[in-house]
Amino acid sequence: MEKNFFVYILQTEDNKLYCGYTDDVNKRFEMHKNGTGAKYTRAHKPVKIVYNKKFSTKSDAMKEEYRIKRLSRAKKLELIADSNY
User: Fold this and answer.
1) Which residues contact 11 (CB under 8 A, 6 or more apart)?
2) Neighbouring residues of 54: CB distance < 8 A, sequence distance ≥ 6
3) Exposed, middle or buried, 20 (CB in 10 Å: 0-12/13-18/19+)?
4) Signed CA dihedral, 69, 70, 72, 77: sign only
5) Which of 36, 70, 74, 79 counts the most CB atoms within 10 A of its CB?
6) Is it the case that residue 2 has pLDDT exceeding 90?
7) Domain boundaries, the chain
8) Tens digits of residue pLDDT in 18-76
9) Which helix (H) or strand (E) holds 11?
10) What is the secondary structure of 54-81 as a DSSP string?
């Protein structure tokens, strides 16, 4: 079975955006909500997934995560709006 990887963006309670990658978006979101996902999301509680995109390799997903993290907030919001997620 082929394994897929995903880049995702979460919106937090304080309206911040958090970007990451995973092989299971729903499981990772639950980890973030439970405080075991990332240090950042322990301090900024995630509310919902606002973006995700599938990749066939971990490397491609990591490259896209890096690219997104370097975008301005305005560009991230544009990416989210264009995705129709």
Assistant:
1) 17, 46, 47, 48, 49, 50
2) 4, 5, 6
3) buried
4) negative
5) 79
6) no
7) 5-83
8) 999 999 999 999 999 999 999 999 999 999 999 999 999 999 999 999 999 999 999 99
9) strand 5-12
10) EESSHHHHHHHHHHHHTS-HHHHHHHHH
With 0-12 / 13-18 / 19 or more C-beta atoms within 10 angstroms meaning exposed / middle / buried, residue 31 is middle
The two tokens of residue 30 are 């639950």
Q: How many residues does the chain have?
A: 85
Please check whether the domain covering 5-83 is classified as CATH 2.40.50.1020.
Answer: no
Alpha-carbon distances of 41 from 30, 56, 85, rounded to whole Å: 11, 26, 21
Query: With the C-alpha atoms ordered 81, 83, 52, 50, is the resulting torsion angle positive or negative?
Result: positive
84, burial (CB in 10 Å: exposed 0-12, middle 13-18, buried 19+)? exposed
Specify the amino acid at residue 1.
M
